[in-house]
Amino acid sequence: MNLLKRVKSLPARHTQSPAVLHESHPQAGPGNLSGPSRYALRFFAAMLVLTLVARGVSGAAMPQVSLTAPSQGTIVQQASATASISAGEGESLPLSAGITVDVLYASAGQTLKAGDAIARLNLTELQDALDAANVTLSQQQAELAQLTASPASITSTADSAWQTLTRAQEDYARTGDRTQAAVDEADAALTQALQAQDEAASRLEELQTQTDPAASEEELAAARQTLDEAQQAAEAARQALENAQNSREDELLAAQRSIEDAESALAQAEAADSQARSSAALTAQNNQAQADALQLEMEKNEESIALLTACIQSGGLICAERDTQLLTCDLTEGQPCPESGGLRLAKEGSELVAQFTLPSGQGDELSAGQAVIITQGSARTEATVRTVTEDSESVTFHVTAALSEEASGFRAGTAQAELIFSRTSYSVCLPVSAIRQDTQGSFVLTVEESRSTFGVRYTAQRVPVTVLEVGSDGQYAAVEGTIGGSVISSSDRAVSPGASVRVAQ
């Protein structure tokens, strides 16, 4: 606008000096223009220049865009992950722990043929270990013989106590019989004495009542004497019976106490015997447990002796017994063999497996039986998914896939796993960069061409589309919509519908 004002002001300045204008320009003629005509021509020329300059400045400010044409294509849903290949099953190769590794010939992941050397162990240390193992075995055998020897017989005190009780019971019975006989005898004597007393009393009474003839004094005195003697004899018999009864009670009591003492002694003897048997049983149980443990130690020692002997016979070499794969090798030259797990080989007939992890969005779509492409260097094969395990803490899925039996050229180590979930063909596919989004939904921008006196003009036009599917790599998408031509796939600055653009050549 400032340039235009300057151009319009030019005639006014020139009209202030008409004399100069006349001196500078001759009269109009056949080959000359009059003064006003020349000024008009100059005015329109300036306007044209300014218009061209303005369009040039405006075009430089337009966004420059790149176009792409919609085309048929295939949208692929796939995933890739770094996998770890190993044998599905492995077994440890026995080693002599503590023996120094002089030379290491193989490394983890290496494929071995039968007879291939893996390591060489120190022969001097092997022989020293074998000698020490033989000494230990001799000691173990002697200790085992002591533990398994027949235990000494237990002397029972209960038998003697039982015999004492039996005799006490027999004595009680004999005492009872003997004292009862004495009591019975005393009782019989008392009965006879009382009968004699009654007879003597009856005789005296008879004499005292006799009247014809009356008893003499001598007869009465003799009868009284007989009665007194009979009474004394009855009293003596009564005392004898009482003594016999008292003696019976005393002897039976003594015999009963002897029985009780014998019963108590028997109970103590049986308790002592039971304790002795329990102690002997516990000792035998402990000895058996120690013997079992010692037997296991001896078996391990014998295995170690056999391993050491075989290793010495092979000159210290540890070799593969069959074609296999070295899964783990924790041996280091100059260092002793570890206690366990130093060498681990693929088990005979074991298949190779690839293990990898997928994020939840991809792992959700994976299931057992699905195919996986495993690549390791130049080797490439198809594997089958065996297990898919979700880790809820890390929101990931751990996948195990078995390589086909025909797979070759693979070894334990890192590989690449590729999974294809789907391949879908579409009639209209575009780069994802061409698809835009606003409050009204998804759309693309096409370029409309128009021509004028000043040239060709390109305008961005909004075309609504529906996104059907986006590839897993995020590069291309399938869309649905009425797209009349090429669409803007990229630009050097923001482009909005209706904006003028420059098309990159």
From TrEMBL:
Residues 123-150, 190-304 form a coiled coil. Its main location: other. It comes from the Bacteria. It is found in: Cell envelope. Keywords: Coiled coil. InterPro entries: UPF0194_transport. This is Biotin/lipoyl-binding protein. It comes from Allofournierella massiliensis. Residues 1-32 are annotated as: Disordered.
